[in-house]
Protein: Homer protein homolog 3
Amino acid sequence: MSTAREQPIFSTRAHVFQIDPATKRNWIPAGKHALTVSYFYDATRNVYRIISLGGAKAIINSTVTPNMTFTKTSQKFGQWADSRANTVYGLGFASEQHLTQFAEKFQEVKEAARLAREKSQDGGELTSPALGLTAHQVPPSPLVSTNGPGDEKLFRSQSADAPGPAERERLKKMLSEGSVGEVQWEAEFFALQDSNNKLAGALREANAAAAQWRQQLEAQRAEAERLRQRVAELEAQAAAEPASVSEKEGPSQSLEQLEALVETKDQEIQTLRSQTSGSREAADTEREETQQKVQDLETRNAELEHQLRATERSLEEARVERERARAEVGRAAQLLDVRLFELSELREGLARLAEGAP
Structure:
């Protein structure tokens, strides 16, 4: 493209799509990011073109003709058919305002192309370029092309058996209802996708909570085991206390020494008995406290296990709900494909009827 010969007259950014040549129903994106789409005017040849470049490759190179129609299929998406390139281009805009600006510029360029063609004619009847689409193509909305005076001349040479104004109004209404239905199915499909994402997020949160509860349960079990070991140690220590004191005096001692020794031993026995009694009472108290703690921990463990089972049931229900939502999304996607295919066939029929309109 020569910059001296062609100059851009309008530019915007949009996500570029082309119809799948195999199915003629699905859209193939030209890239992951939005591209610059521009209208160019060739002063030498007096033609207008829509061009979009992806690096060094021309993604869109479409010459605008008077018979082309730009159709808005949703609030942010529009498309037009190019029979010379044997494809259908689609543009997804960031806002409805950008889509409206592009559509208005398309009409201006289309009108300018029509005037340029009429000016280039030498008074003869205008001839229409071959814009007829084959049966497997996705046509634009051809009914809009009956607005321009040049298009009326093109239709004068068609069959006299074409439908009248009432039939054309009915076809326009059918096309409008089909576009509205397509938008509604798209909205429902995106709503189901959003619901599926929310269910997946809730499932992840439930999994994280269950993992945290499992860690707490393991910690409580370890603490209970440690306390059981401590109780066993205290019981063994209480059983090992000395029960009596052996005598070490020989029979050769005198009576006084023996009596003094008896008194001393009695005092020692009383002291040992008091010490043993206090030690046993302390051990019994600590053992009872430890047993109470163990019982409390076992009760807590039972509660945690109950919560864990309830959480696992909630997880299973969430999984079932997620699978159901996935199945609904799949059915909605299949139904949307069927609706889009029916809309495509309807537009093909409308295109053939519009071609035969006077």
